Amino acid sequence: MRAVVICAEPDVPQDAGAVATLLGELGCRATLGRFDLGGLDLDALANRAPNVVIVEAGDDIARAQKTIKRLRDDGPLVEVPILVAVTVARLAALDFSVGFDDFVLMPIVPAELYARMRQLDWKTATFGSDEVLKIDDLVIDIAGYEVRIAGRRIELTHQEFELLRYLGQHRGRVFTREALLERAWGYRYAGGTRTVDIHVRRVRAKLGEMGSWIETVRNVGYKLRG
Fold it and tell me: Which helix (H) or strand (E) holds 158?
């Protein structure tokens, strides 16, 4: 796992409890930078973004939050999840509206740090396998035959699940209603192509905000956003 660690003085040797030291012990590759983003090769980060940015705030909440706002405004790290390391004494001063994704308390427990990094990487990752598809907060468990959004189970009928599964397995591709009838459900359903429209509408409703990921391609059919 790759991480960018932003702290006050990255060139000064850190004590045993510092984030950068712990990351090395955990087998993670860390790139160090300052609160003003000095020391970071932004061009290199644009080509290969890290899994997570860790802002080692400690007691310096004001500068840490200014850095977070800058990261969220522009640049190659704008969409990378941010984890803030903060002392217990300064936790109450942390502004949760500045744009970070999670926090960890200092002094840091290595197992907790790694678990929070993995959780953030999971939440923002998009991947697919023969058994599980993950698209943003949407998880389609093909083997377990269930759908979850941000951990919340979504109840779908058999046909709704198969429709979503098929679109998820072919993200970005447009399918006609006829193709979805045959390929998603495996046969020409008696209700005709209009049935696809009805099921798409129902799936969108059940997915809530993520329902917009199923896009209508005018005069053609449907696709799941790529």
Answer: helix 158-169
| Pick among 3.30.1330.10, 1.10.10.10, 3.20.20.30, 3.50.50.60: CATH of 128-224 | 1.10.10.10
**Does residue 183 contact residue 159 with C-beta atoms inside 8 Å?**
no
Domain with CATH 1.10.10.10 in the chain: 128-224
Give the model confidence (pLDDT) of 52-102 as tens digits. Answer: 999 999 999 999 999 999 998 888 898 899 999 999 999 999 998 899 999
Q: Which of 115, 117, 116, 61 is nearest to 87 (CA)?
A: 61
Give the C-alpha separation, 17 to 15, whole Å. 6
d(C-alpha 210, C-alpha 208), whole Å: 5
Stated pTM of the model: 0.58
Length of the chain: 226
Instruction: Specify the 3-state DSSP secondary structure of 122.
Output: helix
Closest CA to 135 of 56, 63, 207, 76: 207
Fold of 2-125: Rossmann fold (3.40.50)
Mode of pairing for the β-strands spanning 82-87 and 52-58: parallel
pLDDT in tens, 92-147: 999 988 999 999 999 889 999 989 998 888 777 666 667 889 888 899 999 889 99
